[in-house]
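User: If only I could read backbone structure tokens as easily as an amino acid sequence. Those tokens are not coordinates but codes from a learned vocabulary of shapes. Could you go through the record with me and say what the backbone is doing? Here is the record:
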Amino acid sequence: MKSTNYNINQKTIKCLFGVSVNEINALASKDNIIIITDEIVYSLHASKFVGYRIIQIASGEHHKIQSTVDYIINQLLSWQVNKDNYIIGIGGGVVTDIAGYVASVYKRGTKLGLVPTTILGMTDAAIGGKNGVNVALIKNMVGTIYQPDFILFDFSFLKTLPQQEWISGFAEIIKHACIKDEAMLTLLEHHSLEAFQNNGNMIFELIEKNVDIKFSIVAADEKENADRRLLNFGHTIGHAVENICKMPHGNAVSIGIIAACRLSEKINGFLFSDTKRIEDLLNKYYLPTSIDVDPKKVFQLLLSDKKREAASIHFVLLNKIGDAATKLLDINMVENNLKEIL
């Protein structure tokens, strides 16, 4: 077991690596815990939930909506849950996002713990305090920033993780490498998805490295006024593609990464050879780098993106691998280039 404390805006978040989910009893009494999870995680790991009050939600991004939040809150009210209880989200990004949102608004703030069960959750979604729900085709349009007291990393959940979830999670890992850590990108080039799947120490160390990267960014800019925007690399176009094409989050981010690389070539002088290097790496980890999608539909969703400001949009570009910057781009210029970069 490894315990690391991270500080964000004067709050300490305890991260426990390589710990069984049963250890939450050492962090809060069983009677004070309410677990939010989804039907798939529960069905695969029912023995880990014995004796707890459980709220199960339906699985999938299309259930990350306000009606799911209302269902959970009504259950909390029926149990007379108070601010001293712990709401603990155990699942992938959908579950941890919803659990964080519920904890932040229920009685204006309830104790929160997270146990991410996917690669994407462990390296990205559960870290940083962002949470919320989707509205129509617009991802994460409603939500808050609310930090958990702890994040527990029980790597045994990865044993039942479907192959597509492994693939999707590595898109976020590659994103972190692109914006902050060329050495990690080189490490990924020298190995393979199968190598990380078959070597516990390798994947544990990789997850910890990504947790460090994300916490270092969020600690410096919790509210996304500066460097935290870098974490949106690949997501501006990726979110639009995800919603239009109904594809896994990581796959859409992968397509968004290459689109951002191509735009970086046009605007920042980013090298074509480095775009090719990133494209080859994404393909090596079974992630798509192109798709047949209507640029007009993509642009319509960009108009509703949270990063838009009037006639401009904050867009993350690469100067070089490991060095990213946010630029405020004319949104019509982005529109004019969509067909070429997608």
Observations:
- The mean pLDDT is 96.
- The chain is about 45% helix and 20% strand.
